[in-house]
Amino acid sequence: MMDDDSSRMCRRPLSVTHRHGALLACTGFSLTTAAFLAYHLHYFSIFLVYLPFALICIPALTIFDATYLSSWDRWAPWRRHRFRICVLWCLFILFAPTYPSSFPLSKHAPIPQITSSKNGTYFIAANLYNSAKVLPSWTKNMKLFSEHVGPRNVFISIYESNSQDGTQDMLRKFRDELVQLGVANKVVTEAGTRGRWDLDSPRRISYMAQIRNKVLEPLRVMADRDGRTFEKVIFFNDVYFDWSEPLHPQSP
Length: 252
Description:
Strand order of the largest sheet: 3-2-1-4
Radius of gyration: 27 Å
Oligomer: single chain
Number of strands: 4
CATH topology of the largest domain: Rossmann fold
């Protein structure tokens, strides 16, 4: 009798481990991936855990279970429920409507006319860091935007510091291209070592405030020296965007 009880007690942990092994593996993978991304991005968010779990682990688990569909009749109820939920999630990812645009108007809405008056101008401010992967698209769309509003109606201010991936060389080339287009600009690149701080660290907040002030410095100088003002001040970072997006009116 004791041998039977001992046998059941030994088998139960193994059963629990087998049942939840996939979940534990997915959780471990998601946490490891999130830690890797947080280390390189210098900030942590629950989204970094959710992303690999939702887009990699669940589809992978679905494919794994699908290879054993021939033994469906022998599956435990919990495994069948898990498979159904995973399949529904994968179908949602594949066929769900695209997320709505953050702009109140469609991209196909008429683009407002740009005036050539003193205040019909755009001041573009961008803080960049290790942005080499994004810059080919970023600079292309920024040039298209400048050509549309008119080179005289836009000023581009960029402040970059401590990049290690070729960002500085790409920005110097972009600065020369802006000069050829007749777009007023100030592109600052600085070498050094970037500090690593927690997301809510006072030192990080102070540093971010300083680099934002530096990228806005031309705005103050032009106002004091030339009396030049701008209708819109738009902040950018290293994101993919379409050149027409800054032209869409925003909700009040």
